[in-house]
Amino acid sequence: MSVFILGLSIALLIGIQQLKTSFKYQMKNNLGDIDLVIGAKGSPLQLVLSSVLHLDNPTGNISYGEAKKIAENPFIKQAIPISYGDNYKGYKIVGTTSDFPTIYNAELEKGRTVKNAMEVVLGHLVAEKLKLKIGDTFLSSHGLVENSIDVHEEELIVVGIYKPTQKVIDRLIITNLESVWDVHDHDHVDEDHEEDTHEHTADSDIHEDHEDHEEDTHEHENHDEKEITSLLVSFRNPTGFLTLPRRINENTNMQAALPKYELDRLYEYTGVGFKTISWIAYIILVISNIIIFISLYKMVRERSFDLALLRTYGANKNQLIKIIAYEGLIIVCIAFVVGLILSKMGLYFLVNNVDVMSNQKILQSITFEDFAQIGALIFIMIAAAILLAIYPITKMNISTILSNEK
């Protein structure tokens, strides 16, 4: 019982610390050089989660032309547009520019970069999970959740695979903006064409198709009329933080969100849960130390006659104290091993049963300082329990104990 309860408290303390370390690392690691996210009006946290961590639905679309005007601001060093709305087997398809992989320092492992529409480069995890290789083709589904109902007709072909980065790009399918626009524009044209087929004669159908073709050609020539999901911005200097976000939020129909600020807020919200579980672990640790103290103290009282005999045979108090201390330390060592095993098993179960986490290796090892702090705390509390338990040995009256023993 002592070993199990102490091991459980150790497992909770180590597990929570590892989750906190992993959470902080992943937020910082996936943020890269993104200083600002510009998107449709709505929740700024939702905008950051959808555009930076790719864990939520977007707040809407914004005009590509308006976004390009903002990107010309002298305070902006780099502005990368992204557009999405489709997936393949649950993995998000992101239309963007060639600068997007540089945010995550992603390098090609196989193949080449996207050059034409309907070409994609896979994140390492996507290629590994879906068993895709260079030259394979697939059909994307509309929306961000896997479905077999709203499937696009255009095939996407794999032309490259990125090396593993342990960042969010590992679970993304990267293409260019034209691919995303072409897929959705084609869907709209098909819907309009079906409606016109029921209402007009064959000659008028030909006329409408010709007009649709001219309009489609015009749209391809003028991408400023298109829409994107968001714009990822990095500044040249800190002055951009002070002026650009407020100007965008007040003077445009778009919103600007600071990823670092929003993710810090998110960490504060989740920190409440971390603290709650940590306090539960501390309470269990105190209870386990009380149990260890009671068991050692009971052992000293029950073996008082044996200990007294050892004293008569020449053993000193320090030797008797070592016997009790060694037993307590053995319990702690076994409990520590049990705690490590329980924490590894618990985190493994958590990672493999949470959809968001199972798509990416997010767990990071805790630092030596954090591990040392947990070990020092446990050692101090166990040392206190052992000292209290051996107190009767220091006050032992050998003659009284031996004379009262029947």
Query: Could you tell me the radius of gyration in angstroms?
Result: 32 Å
Termini separation = 31 Å
SS class: alpha+beta
Unreliable stretches (pLDDT < 50, length at least 5) are 187-221, 355-359
H-E order: HEHEHEEHEEHEEEHHEEHEHHHHHHH
The spatial strand order of the largest sheet comes to 3-4-9-6-8-7
Helix content: 55-70%
Mean pLDDT: 78
What is the helix tally? 15
Tally of distinct domains: 2
Q: Count the E strands.
A: 12
Strand count, sense and barrel status of the largest sheet are:
6 strands, mixed, barrel
For this entry, what is the oligomeric state of its chains?
A: single chain
Instruction: Characterize the overall form.
Output: elongated
Beta-strand share of residues? 15-25%
